[in-house]
Amino acid sequence: MYLERLGSAAPAGNGLVRAILTFLEDQRLEPTPVNYTFAYRVMSDPAGHLAREVARRTDGGIRLSGGEVEELGNAIESAAPGRIVAAPVAPASTGPDPRAAETQRLVAGFESTVAAMHDETRDFGRDLAASADALRAVPCIDVAAAIADLARITATMRARVEIAESRLAQAKHEASGLREELAAAHQDARRDPLTELPNRRAFEAALADRAGGPFHVALCDVDHFKSVNDQHGHPVGDRVLKAIAATLTRECAGQLVARYGGEEFAVLLGGIDLASAGALLERARRAVGARRYRLRESDTVIEGITLSAGLVTLRSGETITEGIARADRLLYAAKRGGRNQMVGETR
Q1: Comparing 59 with 198, which gets the higher pLDDT?
Q2: How distant, in Å, are the alpha carbons of 36, 117, 124, 131 from that of 154?
Q3: How far apart, in whole angstroms, are the C-alpha atoms of residue 145 and residue 20?
Q4: Distance between CA 198 and CA 225 in Å, rounded?
Q5: Which of 281-315 are b and which e, b meaning 16 or more Cβ less than 10 Å from the residue's Cβ?
Q6: Distances 212 to 11, 198, 216, 287 between C-alpha atoms, Å
Q7: CA 292 → CA 224, 280, 302, distances in Å?
Q8: Given 263, 303, 318, 345, which residue is catalytic?
Q9: pLDDT band at 50, cuts 50/70/90?
Q10: CA dist 178 → 94, 107, 109, 173 (Å)
Q11: pLDDT in tens, 103-119
Q12: Distance between CA 151 and CA 154 in Å, rounded?
């Protein structure tokens, strides 16, 4: 092949330009900045390690693929003298979350596109420098052809930059959509799907972010809720929980009401003293007990569903776990005291 014809001596001047173009044509490679630079490295040092590796891979008339050009080009950049090392390939993401996988794909796409633009810009400068060196030895009669080759390389570079810009614009559009999906997923992760109240995670995050004060925490539990599910079924129990959530939200307007788990609700009350917090919570608790639930399936009326509650004022320096544990102890004191009541701490 052409490497065998060249021997160990690098062609000079016009011969180097022709050798580069011949290499690209034989390998069916477009005269892009990356390919041109790769060909220049091969043809300018026919006895070098890169040229020998190319000769080995193309033995028997096999052509290089675009991936091999990229692999060998990257390897020659980072290899120690005398070695050709394959460029590392990042493993594909196998994460279970499709949003996480999509995020990784977009990030990888951004990095790849930006890296390609950087490399091609750098290589384009090398191409121009290499061509300038070659042109110094080109006879005047061939200058026009060489300039035409440079023009073609420049046009290719421009086209590839436009493609890269288009890819970046598309990636930006996809990232914007993904950002909205992730924001929605973040909200979903902090919201109870049945009652649409904030969930335990959101409640504890609000406790952690509190500033100023005073703040009071109430834990409320539906009395004998298991009997509602046992007598009327879980779908009815779900409707009762939704109704209780709506009542607490209405009666505790301006405060944070959350479904803490199962038939348990939590309320974070701020900006009022303990006596006012107790009065507000008691009013909400009584409003829940006053509700009557008519079953549309049988026209049966369910009434007498009540709440027990424990209320504490958060102390300075107290952890979330400590504050909730104190409220939980008072809630169970209300349960042991006969249910359908609120027990607050004594000051």
Answers
A1: 198
A2: 11, 14, 8, 12
A3: 14
A4: 21
A5: bbebbebbeebebeeeeeeeebeebbbbbbbbbbe
A6: 79, 22, 12, 30
A7: 16, 21, 6
A8: 263
A9: confident
A10: 18, 11, 14, 9
A11: 655 555 665 666 666 66
A12: 5
DSSP state of 198: B
User: Is residue 44 a contact partner of residue 10, using CB atoms and an 8 Å limit?
Assistant: yes
181 is catalytic: no
Query: How buried is 36 (Cβ within 10 angstroms: 0-12 exposed, 13-18 middle, 19+ buried)?
Result: buried
Q: Calculate the CA dihedral of residues 326, 328, 334, 335 and round it to 10 degrees.
A: -150
Q: Which helix (H) or strand (E) holds 296?
A: none
Q: Is the peptide bond before 193 cis (omega within 30 degrees of 0)?
A: no
- pLDDT greater at residue 265 or residue 166: 265
Residues comprising the chain, all counted: 347
53: pLDDT strictly greater than 80:
yes
pLDDT, tens digit, 9 for 90 and up, residues 119-146: 666 666 666 666 666 656 555 546 666 6
The two three-digit tokens of residue 169, written as one number: 């614009």
Distance CA 285, CA 309 (A): 8
Cα separation, 242 vs 128, in Å, equals 71
DSSP string, 156-180: HHHHHHHHHHHHHHHHHHHHHHHHH
| 273, two tokens | 């003293």
